[in-house]
Design goal:
This protein is 29% helix and 40% strand. The chain contains three helices and eight strands; from the N terminus they run βααβββββββα. The radius of gyration is 14 Å and the shape is globular.
Length: 128
Amino acid sequence: ATVLANTQKVWDYYTQPEHITQWNFADPSWHCPTATNNMKIGGLYIARMEAKDGSFGFDFKAIYTEIKSEENFTYEFDRRVVTVTFKEEGGQTEVCVTFDPETENSIELQRNGWQSILNNFKKYTELN
């Protein structure tokens, strides 16, 4: 996603818990009521994901393995790796999320879910 904001704002909105809870869900029927983020190598990221009707929820937990402030970070969860990169050009920032897929759902479904979350992030960041 290309976000109409500089990299510092985009990085902050992507990594600070008070912002994460505002955009970190793939569908409007879900929300992210809490998040914590210890952004250091070996630090823990936790985001609570819940259906708004209370029917289902889980904690997404990951551990940071690499961080280059305002450039990229990598974390691991369930033996899977996710890398998020930030590249500013002309006052806007491209955010790219690369993930190891799981085996239960199709790649397309997973890609659409991650993209939906990224779209929520873009919208939230540009409106605030």
